[in-house]
Amino acid sequence: MTTPSRAVTRNPEGILRFAAPQQFYPLAGTLAPWFAQAAAVLTAIGLYIGFFVAPTDFQQGEVYRVIFIHVPAAWMSMLIYLVMAFWAAVGLVLNTRLSFIMCQALAPTGAMFCFLALWTGALWGKPTWGTYWVWDARLTSQLLLLFLYFGFIALTRAIEDPRRADRAGAIIALVGAVNVPIIYFSVQWWNTLHQGASVSLTKAPSMATTMLAGMLVMALAAWMYAIAVALWRVRALILERERHTEWVGEVLEAEGRAR
Amino acid sequence: MLEVTDLACLKGDRLLFRGLALRLAPGAMLRVAGPNGVGKTSLLRLLTGLTEPEAGTVSWCGVPLRRERENFHRALFYLGHAAALNDMLSALENLRFACAAAGDEEVDEAACVRALERIGLGAQLDLPARVLSQGQRRRVGLARLFLASARPLWVLDEPFTALDVHAVADLAGTLGAHCAAGGMVVLTTHQEAPFAQPPDVLDVGRYAC
Amino acid sequence: MLSAFLAVLRRDLLLAWRGRADLLVTLAFFVVVVCLFPFGVGAETNQLRAIAPGVLWVAALLASLLALHRLFAQDHADGTLEQLLLSSEPAVLWVLAKICAFWLTTGLPLVLAAPALALLFDIEEGALPVLTLSLALGTPILALLGAVGAALTLGVRGGGMLLALLVLPLYVPVLIFGAGAVEAWLGGSGAAAHLLLLGGGLAGALALAPWACAAALRIAME
């Protein structure tokens, strides 16, 4: 028996060309370092603004500065789940392998941001509220989001057959995305009944412009980081999936020679 | 009419076969051959629409399967490796359920009893499936053939396994009669069966990668 | 159109009846878990009263989770699922029939047993109908959502734990509104809002979950 290889090399025209893993692999390789550099530069600027330019908060003191990491991480964790659901839907409808790979490449980054948001939130909570954890609506739904990420990752890792893993993961990502607003709403409802407004997370009404600027720059940095890491992970997944094909052999040979 | 073009099948991350094409006209019987692991069962499952091909299309009466799934399933009878019998139900209950679940509303209990008697299980109608032998279990699945004459396309995965010589001859006769009446049969088998007219042979090994 | 639905429903109920010992295990699990709590938190009556709705709901949720892996496992193993997927009837219908039979045989006994167990926690008798109603509306949602998880993890190694991980976060809203209904009634604010939300959730789950479940089963059989 000869070495197995793919039967199909569809060659669509235009931008859709990059939906083929073979075409996307070099593109991702070219783009990822740029995004990574942008992430590094933006993080440096954001942290500089956050720690040296932004004024000390008159209520919370220096502790508040953790929001420069906390808030972008929380935003990203939610956004990434939505993006995953988007790629899952695209994959199920159009039957494109690359969409599923994108979906799976994003999940660990999303989970990481989710965990980061929870962790920094706890560190902020101790000096501010006197406790690491309160069963506040936002914290609780963030925690449940983390569980959703874990479920997705565990399911896609547990299924051996890549095709089945792709599709099963896509379904659970979509089911989760439908449930995220329901979970958020229910947790909020539960929270108001049990806790009243004793602990409020609402920020100071007027945020200094520099604080806002620092946060936005950090958010942008988180975007760049997520894109760069996802692209690298997509490359790794493509290599793993297509390791039997001729083009992967050629790519690996060329990279070996370059080294 | 069943038509397959440029079919490729991926199992795990291994490509089993590619470029496979076949046409099955009314009255034709096709035997899918090839050594173990070449993808015979995978091919049959592709033909039934249980799995989606990596490339290529399977079409029924000119319409690709994925667009006309329910219509196609009305025309199909599939017998897989597993007998689809529940151990806690009797042979008769299993057969009645199989017919009702498949959408054969017109099949009643008397017809099921007749089918089981015809295949030689008249004495085992009410025995729970768990006490049946392998050959008897196989026969319960095959009894549906007598109730599925309205379904033109029969796809049978190793139908002769575990059957005795008489049953093999009977089954070969039934399959031949179905084809003579304008039906279509696709089957795999490792043993020679006494067909009145030898079936066409498709060697999957020719398309292996 | 209904023949596959009725055939599957009748068969699953018959199978449940023939294997009724399995059903009793689910019910016994529910009872035992509920009875464990007083040992853990102390038998102080006021405290027990306060935690009762939550305890009963969490126990009911875990009991239905425990039974979930049985929903498709047998049919998957013996090839029936393959035949069902080749049925000329829409898959959504028989999936719904399987979920119905599953709820009737595992969910309904929990709903019926809950009021009796609630008495062990000295809940006000007036709250018992609310508890029963909240479980009657909530446990079908658990079955519908759980069926999607069960279909996705069919035949996967470590399926049981994975199923819990997938499904439990999705159960949280049901738990909140279910236990909340009883607490709201006890608190004097009326349970109507909670029960209406549960009813809405049930309608939504009925509309969406069978589709997702059918799609998941198709994927699992590939």
Describe the 3D structure.
Chain C: GO terms for molecular function: heme transmembrane transporter activity. The complex is a heterotrimer of chains A (259), B (209) and C (222). Chain A is mainly alpha-helical and 259 residues long. Chain A is 76% helix and 0% strand. The longest helix of chain A is centred in the last third of the chain and has 34 residues, at 162-195. In chain A, 39% of the residues are buried. With 209 residues, chain B is of the alpha/beta class. Chain B folds into two domains: 1-75 and 152-209, Rossmann fold; 85-150, no CATH class. In chain B, 32% of the residues lie in helices and 25% in strands. Chain B has helices at 40-48, 69-74, 91-102, 109-118, 134-147, 165-180; strands at residues 2-11, 14-24, 29-33, 55-60, 63-64, 76-79, 153-157, 184-188, 200-203. In chain B, strands 6-7-8-3-9 form a five-stranded parallel beta sheet, sandwiched between helices. Chain B has a four-stranded antiparallel beta sheet with strand order 2-1-4-5, with helices on one face. In chain B, helix 3 crosses helix 5 (134-147) and helix 4 (109-118) crosses helix 5 (134-147). The model of chain B has no long low-confidence stretch (mean pLDDT 88). Chain C has one domain (3-221). Chain C is built from nine helices and no strands. The mean pLDDT of chain C is 92. Chains A and C meet through helix 4 and helix 5 of A and helix 7, helix 8 and helix 9 of C.
What is the averaged pLDDT score of chain B? 88
| Rg of chain B, nearest Å | 17 Å
**Computed structural class of chain B:** alpha/beta
Oligomerization category of the chains in this entry: heterotrimer
How many domains of chain B, as an integer?
2
Summarize the helix and strand pattern of chain B as letters.
Answer: EEEHEEHEHHHEHEE
- Give the overall average pLDDT of chain A: 83
Strand percent estimate of chain A: under 5%
- Number of extended strands of chain A: 0
How would you sum up the global shape of chain A? globular
Name of the CATH architecture of the largest domain in chain B: 3-Layer(aba) Sandwich
Give keywords.
heterotrimer, B: 209 residues, alpha/beta, Rossmann fold, 2 domains, five-stranded parallel β-sheet, four-stranded antiparallel β-sheet, 6 helices, 32% helix, 25% strand, globular, C: 222 residues, mainly alpha
